[in-house]
Specification:
With 250 residues, this protein is mostly helical. It has two domains: 110 residues, no CATH class; 131 residues, Serine Threonine Protein Phosphatase 5, Tetratricopeptide repeat, CATH 1.25.40. Helices cover 70% and strands 0% of the residues. It is elongated and about 85 Å long. About 10% of the residues have low confidence.
């Protein structure tokens, strides 16, 4: 079978086949992988949609439209010449169309390269938390850089971070988010310099820096270097779970 016959699948599931047709269909199920996949897909679509699609005004209107089209384009003589009138129930038609549409959607998702997930973007999302600094002028600047960072105005944060780090170069909090802002603005090499410095130090950002170093290589499509840095993150630290999850997807 080149493509699943959803009408037969529907009648099989609804128990509408006679004994002979049922036996033939079940034998075909054992031999035809495409039919088996079509059956599984039909059931999945059916289970998903059955609670969401209810007969109502739209369905009745569509039935009336279909009946009008049939009356308009097929004469009574044409109908009378048919020895057996095959009637496809609207419910079966609906599920068959839904299943066929789902097949198309799945094929597009699986095979279209433009729909492949952006792993960097999935894992690079981070937000600055409030951080009170000493002295009113610095607090104002810290709030400004935090707000701009969380609004994803990364380019605008860079000169602000540099002003803050000029005042307190050992501030690991600002150094980490400065490195992230550099990465988000395409300055991967400069970002890695800051991140590796944090990794080699003893701050609480050590393994977050390792994770973002891995992301910097991922952004450059260097999966080997990305894996190397992800493997530097030990079990028990906050970045471990997402590092393992990313490793599985590479």
């Amino acid at each position: 079978m080149s493509a699943p016959d959803y009408d037969k699948i529907s009648r099989y599931i609804d128990g509408e086949m006679d004994a002979e047709e049922l036996q033939a269909f079940e034998q075909l199920l054992l031999q035809d992988d495409e039919l088996k996949k079509g059956m599984e897909l039909y059931k999945e679509v059916n289970d998903t949609l059955k609670d969401r699609l209810h007969p109502g005004e739209e369905e009745l209107a569509l039935r009336d439209t279909m009946e009008n089209l049939r009356s308009k384009y097929f004469s009574k003589e044409t109908h009378s010449n048919q020895p057996v009138a095959k009637v496809i129930r609207f419910k079966r038609f609906r599920w068959a169309v839904a299943a066929a549409a789902a097949l198309v959607i799945i094929a597009v998702i699986v095979w279209s390269p433009w729909n492949q997930p952006d792993l960097y973007r999935q894992y690079a999302s981070t937000e600055m938390t409030s951080f009170a600094e000493r002295g009113a002028p610095v607090e104002t600047l810290q709030k400004e850089v935090t707000d701009k960072f969380n609004d994803k105005k990364f380019a605008e944060t860079i000169p602000l971070f540099e002003r803050l780090l000029k005042t307190d170069s050992a501030n690991a909090f600002n150094q980490f988010y400065y490195a992230v802002a550099l990465l988000e603005t395409g300055q991967a090499e400069k970002s890695r310099t800051e991140l590796i410095q944090l990794y080699n130090g003893g701050s609480v950002f050590k393994y977050d820096a390792a994770f973002y170093t891995a992301l910097s290589y991922l952004k450059e499509k260097n999966k080997d270097a990305c894996r190397d840095w992800l493997n530097k993150i030990p079990e028990g630290v906050s970045a471990y779970s997402k590092s393992q999850d990313l490793l599985k997807k590479l």
